Amino acid sequence: MRSVTPVAESDILYAANGLPALQNRMFDTREAALASATGDVRLAQDPVSGLVRNIAFDPAIIVYDADYQNEQGLSPSFEAHLRETADRLEPLMRGRRIIEIGCGKGRFLRMLAERGHDVEGIDPAYEGDDPRIAKRRFTGSDRFGADLIVLRHVLEHIPDPAGFMACIAQANGGTAKIYIEVPCLEWIASNKAWYDIFYEHVNYFTKEYFESLFGQIYEMRHCFGGQYIGVTAELSSLRPPRLRRALRLPDDFSQSLDRWTRVPVAQPFAVWGAASKGVIFSLLMARAGRSPAAIIDINPAKQGRHVAGAGLLVSAPEDALAALPSGAAILVANPNYHAEIAAAVGGRFSVTSL
Fold first, then answer.
1. Whole-prediction pTM value?
2. What is the dihedral of CA 136, 141, 147, 150, to 10 degrees?
3. Last residue of some domain: 237, 267, 297?
4. pLDDT tens-place string over residues 49-59
5. Smallest Cα–Cα separation from 312: which of 11, 110, 9, 23?
6. Range of the domain at 325
7. Looking at the structure, do residues 232 and 275 belong to the same domain, yes or no?
8. Which of 79, 245, 300, 345 is least surrounded by CB atoms within 10 angstroms?
9. Last residue of a domain, which of 237, 266, 296?
10. How many structural domains are present in the chain?
11. Over the stretch 98-153, which tens digit does the pLDDT of each residue have?
12. Between these two residues, 260 and 223, which has the higher pLDDT value?
């Protein structure tokens, strides 16, 4: 791992203390959730590479296992995003070998397999018995001959993304097409989405970073409502990234937390989305004395379990909606899901996106 370039306190872009180490890990008891590992965030831009990263990150407290639940494919909106991604990659996949590193529970990999493609996956948090998926981490000793490598929502978790990419290139003989998808820092900044900054995301990416990292990019676009950056590039064109532009977050980036705590939200209110955004929003609202009455999720693997940080019990939609009074506010953690959630609750509740 490369050394960390020293950063002055005045160059810190954003700071937060005591965030869950793994905001998507689920716990069987409230006590275990409250006692789970936490870490601090100090975002700064590397003056050499231009990468925005958490300089307070300690990888030792990050352990992925089957209790890590980040499956989004149960949502029709996210499923549509996966299909669109597969459609755009289709010309690169026909008759070729595909490896997805960090394939999660394997949903996207299965989608590609159903289209007739030759696929393999690697992920330590995988649950299941698909022989095409290895339940482990990618290591520098891996060797494979893929034509297309898929890295969806992996690089934001890797302390040295450029070094990690170099290891992948070495493992694959130095060449391949690669598709990378990561959260978009520009979207986070423009939407003042402080609840979209997590401890386990050590890196925050811009298009400019990838333009510096690769000499040959086939396609780069914003996707999933602008929240993600999708990059298709030539792995053999990797080069050391260099700073192109100094970045700053808006001066009032985190002030919306104060605004939310002052908004006259109907009591009780619920947060819909027991994933990253919803977990962080609920935690910081609880610290401000405005804890939600419920946190809702459609993922059965999360229901009846507790989220990290605030320790809230995750409810199935039917259970939470039956308990809430008519007119209660439902805060949608991800605006991409607003329409489907509003349709699901009918007119009984006030539905607002963060």
1. 0.92
2. 40
3. 237
4. 999 999 999 99
5. 23
6. 256-353
7. no
8. 245
9. 237
10. 3
11. 999 999 989 999 999 999 999 999 999 898 999 999 999 999 889 999 999 999 99
12. 223
